[in-house]
């Protein structure tokens, strides 16, 4: 099971609404169950440097089926995933903003958000993830 383009657009719309609510333009990416980009949007005024970060947060979240916030907490020195950010040709993001997307208890993709603080990125990603 994976998500469709229509699903991805719906997830992005919910995330965009949250970003607008908090007044922070964001880059929002959605990947499918295979970690492949389905859709991406760069809101007006969002940093261009965050495009790649949002896509990689979505990839990371799907690759390990974990919120990047949680992966980040477990990848600090003396933690079980220390050094993981160097894997996968440097695509692994270890800060907040990536969340797996689930349907009927199965991971169908992930959302990645970048452009604000870690807290803001996570909140916007959460809004998108909750729309599935």
From TrEMBL:
Pfam families: HbpS-like. It comes from the Bacteria. PANTHER family: PROTEIN GLCG, SLR1406 PROTEIN. This is Heme-binding protein. It comes from Arthrobacter mobilis.
């Amino acid at each position: 099971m994976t998500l469709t383009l229509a699903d991805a657009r719906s997830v992005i719309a919910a995330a965009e609404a949250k970003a607008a609510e908090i007044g922070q333009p964001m880059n929002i990416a959605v990947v499918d169950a295979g970690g492949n980009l389905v859709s991406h949007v760069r809101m007006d005024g969002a940093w261009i440097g965050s495009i790649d970060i949002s896509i990689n947060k979505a990839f990371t979240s799907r690759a390990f089926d974990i919120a990047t916030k949680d992966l980040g907490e477990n990848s600090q020195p003396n933690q079980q995933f220390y050094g993981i950010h160097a894997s996968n040709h440097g695509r692994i993001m270890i800060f907040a903003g990536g969340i797996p997307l689930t349907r009927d208890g199965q991971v169908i993709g992930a959302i990645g958000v970048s452009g604000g603080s870690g807290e803001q990125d996570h909140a916007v990603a959460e809004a998108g993830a909750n729309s599935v």
